[in-house]
User: What shape does this take?
Amino acid sequence: MTQEPGELYLVVILSVLLSCVAAWTIAHRYRRRIRQLMRAPLAGDSRNSNVLAASQAADCPTATPVSLADNHNAGMRLTMLLIALSCLLAVSSACIWWALTFPGEPLPPKRVAVMALLHLWPLVPALALTWRWSRKRLFGMLLLWCAATFIVFLWRQIEFRPLQALAAMASEIGLSLAFLSLVFLGNATRAIAPWLFMPAALLVWSSLAGLHAMNYIGGGQSPFLTSLIKLLDPLLGWLPWYALLLLFVSLPWVLAWWPARVLGRALGRAYSRKWLSDLPVVFTGVWIFALTDRAVMVVDRAGAGALAMYLPLLWIPMVMLIGDRWRPRRERPPTLLVLRVFQQDSQTQSLYDQVVERWRLSGNTVLIAGTDLADRTLDADDIFRFLDRKLAGRFIVSPSDVPRRISELDMTTDMDGRYRVNKCYCHDTTWQDALQALVRCSNVVLMDLRGFHAHNAGCRYELTTLAQESRDLRVVVLTDERTDLTAAKEAVASGRQERFTWIEASHFNASKRRQVLMCLFS
Assistant: This one.
């Protein structure tokens, strides 16, 4: 392998590792900071706070009815959009790869079609990440794709060469799948690492530039720099070789840190202004890994022209914008309020993956932020605000902050057609004020009471608040064998009990998910 493809591989590998390590660190520190801020004392007078929050929060307007069939159709449209987009990317990359590998030769349609099928594998992880498939299902679907592609390869080959077909498939997906698994199959890395990859790549490139500068100076190719090093020799001469190497690797970060930080802030602003959203970023990241592998394969022949392998990425914003224009609009989509028993992280995350992600196709979602769903709801704006030490500014510190925070909720769709999840960051002394306002701006409530006991005072307060709300409101409550149903029903006894639908969900399977969605959309 020549130096250029080797460096490209090195940049990708180090950028992936750096962004993943940073993601794990940020996720840990973010949860710790959230817990600290939640326990912060109330700023201001808390007397009559619930009355103030409820009186200043606007009533929720009547929502446009949405059925489960509408939600299913929206999911099918998004799936077909991703399939069509992946086909465009695969065919385009196959054509570019052939043109760079065999310059001047005509494009054979049948062979290019086979190559496009081979290049189509990122569609499987793209769909898996969109719909939150399990790891078992993801790798099972990849095996099915490999089997189908292997059969097509053998059918199109003039000579029967199964080992050659397997080698081609392994070289196509092996390293890219390793990168993809590292970045996207972890909870923290999936939420954070894609937004850090570009700043991390900038830092890695700066370190490589430092190493090139060291070789350039050591070769005596610059008389000025050589004379400068001689002047600094009394200071640097005592350093061992590995310390000098570390110096040239790390010192460029001093110069590259500011551009990397600016780039990160720009990504955060682009997300908050809805120029970017999580699904296109994840989809683009999957295809970047696949296209990087192909760019490395042709860099020996094409040189800098190998960058043309990234041109198919231009299809992503174009097709997304076209799909956004053709998507049916709803004047007032419904709003779902998600409540849950805290410290039940795994089951809450599973419920989010199976129900809330489906709901996002049809309506808004609001919730009170917590550490249990941090890996699911953390977005680019949160990440870079946290890195800039501005996370405290997102918290509701007094009842007077509630109307402002409610007015800032993002209730419009992204370019992928999904609605965002709006979080209210609250202190332990202000969450009840936020709850009052969120109940008033919601149409339906999903409350996960699995593991609820009578000592969960917060959940009992939420149940009483929902029962006593004067507006029309539907509440779907999930229970299991651990739920103290007696205490839960006592909490709603003083209000409108008929609005509550109780679903036993000890085993949350596909049938139970459909039942919950039917109750939410009815």
